[in-house]
From TrEMBL:
InterPro entries: Vps51. This is Vacuolar protein sorting-associated protein 51 homolog. Transmembrane segments: none annotated. Residues 321-342, 680-709 are annotated as: Disordered. The keyword Ribosomal protein does not apply. Residues 321-334, 689-709 have a biased composition (Polar residues). Component of the Golgi-associated retrograde protein (GARP) complex. Pfam families: VPS51_Exo84_N. Belongs to the VPS51 family. It comes from the Eukaryota. Keywords: Coiled coil, Golgi apparatus, Lipid transport, Protein transport, Transport.
Length: 856
């Protein structure tokens, strides 16, 4: 009985919410009288329903459940009461405290209101009493300030002379700058005019001292900058001053650069030398550009020098100040500006770029030389010293040289250097892989030549060792050595890979470099095959082994390499794998790399197929040349000895059969045969009975014409020749001995047009059976095509029948499509019949005797 018990009770929280009326959505069974949790529950009906529909064991079970639920509800209700009771006690205590604190609040607020009223009244009284005096105090203060200014003006000549005598030129400039507007305002007064002339005379001498200090050979960059600032405040001509500033500072920077370049050549481009180069030369170059920008390119709005990438306090840290000048320019609040017009600022900007851009170029070239990647980056110490040098230079440009970034685009140029360095690192690694693979192929080719036993037989140990060692070497090179180096660069904490944009840029470079690597390795394999003589055994062996390498790359190593790169370099954001199967390498690869994986695997599948086809084509050419040489031998073609009969199979076919077995063994070594191919059934969908040797079946069983019976041709595929042979029988007896006519050849060519097309070098599976099957098609097709161009005697036709039956015996095990094999053999017989002057069939007993010896 499948009776259904009432639904189980709701969770405790839902019941408690419903009890207190704070529940969520109303139940959809609110009007159901059998719902034990509903408001309309009818206990009598519920009991009757249970007694009527449930068995005794179900009733007992339900009773136990109700008892358990009642106990749980009792416990829940007690817990709820206890919890609420403690909250009620806490709320009562809080209310009691609030009541005691609020009792005196109204009295205190009244007292505060009275005090505030008194304060307001006193304040109004004081303000009214002081109002008349306030204006007078303001007037007196203005007069006092004016008197102080007048006193300063009257004392100004003495102050300026004292500053000139003590060498405090910055102080003198500040005094003069503070009073210039006053002289302009009171220039109509004679007393002020006399004072102004006296001050100007002193300041002219100060101006000359400043210029002399700037042109002093021992003047530092700091002195030139400070003096230029003071000359601007003294209203020196900005156009000439800007050119003088550029000329003097460029000379100082050239000297500083030359000193550091000598140090770099002596001590090498190491981290310490490059760090000193950054801290001195690059920092000074940024100071010069920042000061020039503020002096001659600013619109006069106030701005802190720190916004240009270097504070004034940092400028003086290298003791660039003059001992004779008291009061450095760093005490000023901001640099002065020459207030040039728009056109003059554009001209000043052009002069700046023209003068200082070459200095920045030389610095960047020095950085490029210091971080160059050698031919073998894996042999460098870890971490790479180039990373630290590049990190220091990048930080010095991007973080500490904002003036160079603004005016000379230094940041973008530095980013280009970083990108080029990352690309160079990847390219060096990839070329090492390609060069290493090329060297391994060269050594392998030499071993093949040294161990060559026959024209197609090579020591199997060399093949297996080369494949295993090469795949292991390339997997370690890419998946361990190169990956570890790239991971160290990415995780080095260098500023040029910090942050998602910079890291993504490096990862994109790695992705592009890895894809380029696979193409480079594939091209290296193809190039090596191209450079080897296509008719040599080395080419055959290299093609076969290269096909195995390419197919293994496509199926295993490309996927494993990308899986390792995804695991080490990319964030953990993998696809959710099926919990019921083991996670494979494909599941680890990040989606971003999947198109590259597909492209690389397709590339190597195509390369492997091309290598395998090249292997089969090379051997096929060798067989074709041998067959052509045999068939075009005039001694064999024009056999005319009377009573001559074949005594054996032509040697060329036994040699080809022997070499086919060698090819099969070689391919089996490189591509071990699986159980499916090893147990290939003789009755497959392509197979035909192997009892169709010449004369082995009754001709009447397959409906052949008498002429075909005479020829010994027993395949139904040859019945198309019956009309031709019937016509031949109607001719005179001498017709049999005549050569083929033009009409007969025309019928042959028309019949050939309607035959099924045979693809010789199509897709070849990586197995011995498929390679040998392709070679069988090449052998038979070449045999047939060459026969179409020769003329046979009766004796040559007999030999050919023996050879064809021999091929039928030995080639069936190499052909995957035995029906196609039989059809091609019968086509050879047909071609031989057409090209024979006396197409008389050989006695079957003779062919059986010859072939029996080979079968044994």
């Amino acid at each position: 009985m499948g009776e259904q018990l009432p639904p189980r009770r709701k969770p405790r929280n839902d019941l408690l919410r419903n009890y207190y009326g704070i529940g969520g959505k109303a139940s959809g069974k609110a009007n159901d009288t059998s719902d034990i949790d509903g408001p309309n529950f009818d206990s009598a009906k519920y009991q009757n329903k249970l007694l009527k529909e449930s068995k005794l064991d179900s009733l007992i079970s339900r009773d136990n459940e109700l008892v358990t639920e009642i106990r749980e509800l009792d416990g829940d209700m007690k817990t709820l009461v206890y919890e609420n009771y403690s909250k009620f006690i806490s709320a009562t205590d809080t209310i009691r405290k609030m009541k005691s604190n609020v009792e005196d609040m109204e009295t205190e607020m009244d007292r505060l209101r009275d005090h505030m009223s008194k304060v307001t009244a006193h304040s109004s009284t004081i303000d009214k009493e002081l109002a008349p005096r306030r204006d007078k105090i303001r007037q007196l203060d203005g007069v006092h300030n004016l008197l102080k200014k007048l006193q300063f003006i009257f004392e100004l000549p003495n102050r300026l002379q004292q500053c000139y005598n003590t060498g405090a030129y910055p102080q003198a400039v500040r005094y003069w700058a503070r009073t210039t507007h006053l002289f302009d305002h009171y220039q109509q007064l004679t007393v002020f005019h006399n004072i102004e002339n006296e001050c100007k005379d002193i300041m002219n001498r100060v101006r000359q001292k400043l210029k002399d200090a700037m042109y002093d050979p021992n003047a530092s960059i700091q002195i030139i900058t400070e003096n230029t600032s003071m000359l601007i405040q003294l209203k020196e001509g900005p156009t000439l001053l800007s050119k003088e500033y550029i000329t003097l500072q460029s000379a100082k920077l050239e000297g500083l650069k030359g000193k550091h370049l000598v140090t770099l050549q002596t001590e090498g481009h190491n981290e310490e030398s490059m760090r000193s180069f950054n801290e001195e030369y690059l920092a000074d170059l940024n100071i010069v550009v920042a000061s020039y920008q503020r002096f001659f390119m600013s619109d006069g709005q106030p701005s802190e020098i720190s916004a240009l990438g270097m504070s004034t306090s940092n400028i003086s840290r290298r003791s660039l100040g003059s001992a004779s000048q008291k009061g450095s320019i760093s005490n000023q609040e901001a640099h002065p500006s020459a207030h040039l017009s728009e056109s003059e600022r554009e001209e000043a900007n052009s002069l700046l770029i023209l003068a200082f851009s070459p200095l920045l170029d030389e610095y960047l070239e020095t950085v490029k030389y210091a971080i160059r990647i050698p031919s073998d980056p894996l042999a460098l110490p870890r971490p790479l010293p180039q990373i630290q040098i590049l990190n220091d230079s990048y930080s010095a440009i991007v973080h500490d040289s904002s003036a160079l970034c603004d005016v000379l685009l230094a940041e973008q140029r530095m980013l280009d250097i970083v990108k080029d360095w990352e690309s160079e690192l990847l390219t060096s690694l990839m070329h090492d892989a390609a060069a290493g693979l090329e060297e391994r192929f060269r050594v392998f080719s030499e071993k093949v030549v040294a161990s060559q036993q026959t024209s197609a037989n090579v020591d199997p140990g060399i093949l297996t060792t080369f494949v295993i060692d090469t795949e292991e070497w390339l997997a370690n090179f890419m998946g361990m050595d190169s990956l570890q180096l790239l991971a160290e660069c990415l995780q080095s904490g260098a500023s040029f890979v910090l942050g998602k944009p910079r890291k993504d840029m490096f990862l994109k470079q790695i992705q592009s470099g890895l894809l380029k690597h696979w193409r480079l390795v594939a091209d290296s394999i193809k190039d090596h095959m191209t450079n080897v003589d296509s008719k040599s055994v080395v080419h055959q062996t290299v093609s076969l082994v290269a096909s195995r390498l390419c197919l293994d790359f496509a199926e295993i190593w490309v996927i494993k390499t990308y899986a390792q790169f995804s695991k080490e370099l990319y964030p953990v954001s993998r696809r959710s794998s099926n919990p019921y199967r083991q996670e494979d390498d494909r599941d680890i690869i990040v989606p971003l790399l999947e198109p590259d994986v597909q492209e690389s695997t397709d590339l190597y599948r195509e390369a492997g197929q091309l290598c395998l086809i090249s292997y089969a084509r090379t051997i096929g050419y060798m067989f074709t040349d041998r067959i052509e040489g045999f068939l075009r031998d005039k001694k064999w073609l024009m056999l005319k000895e009377k009573d001559w009969i074949p005594s054996s199979v032509s040697p060329v076919w036994t040699e080809i059969a022997s070499e086919l077995e060698i090819v099969e063994r070689m391919v089996d070594i490189v591509y071990p045969v699986d159980s499916e191919n090893a147990d290939r059934s003789a009755e497959s969908e392509y197979s035909v009975p192997r009892t169709n040797r010449l004369g082995s079946q009754s001709p009447s069983e397959i409906g052949l014409s008498p002429t075909n019976q005479r020829l010994g041709i027993t395949s139904p595929s040859m019945t198309s020749l019956s009309s031709f042979t019937s016509a031949a029988n109607n001719d005179s007896q001498a017709t049999n001995s005549m050569p083929r006519t033009y009409g007969n050849d025309l019928l042959s060519n028309i019949s050939k047009l309607f035959q099924e097309r045979i693809e010789i070098y199509g897709h070849i599976d990586p197995s011995a059976s498929d390679v040998c099957s392709a070679l069988v098609k090449v052998i038979l097709k070449a045999y047939n095509e060459i026969l179409r161009e020769v003329t046979l005697t009766k004796y040559a036709f007999w030999q050919l029948q023996v050879d064809v039956e021999y091929l039928r015996i030995v080639l069936w095990k190499f052909a995957r499509n035995e029906k196609l094999l039989s059809s091609m053999l019968e086509e050879i017989c047909a071609s031989a019949y057409r090209r024979c002057t006396q197409p008389i069939s050989l006695d079957s007993s003779i062919s059986d005797q010859i072939l029996g010896a080979y079968e044994q």
